[in-house]
Sequence to fold (78 residues):
Amino acid sequence: MKTLLFIMQLIPTLIELIKALEAVIPVGGQGKEKLEAIRKIIESTYDGAKEVWPVIEKAIEAIVTLFNKTGVFNTTAK
Fold:
């Protein structure tokens, strides 16, 4: 339950990080690199990030998938 609460609190920050990276690097096909950047940012700012990274990663994948399916992000490679 503690991890769920942590992720719920982290979601707004994840959304902002994802959108910020997408704004700076709007090129499709760079998802792996963008995910790695988010991982490094989170791990450098939160001591317990490595332990919960798999859960954070799944949350990021869910957010990005939603954004892609709903047209928030243009998924066409440029």
Summary: The chain has one domain: 2-70.
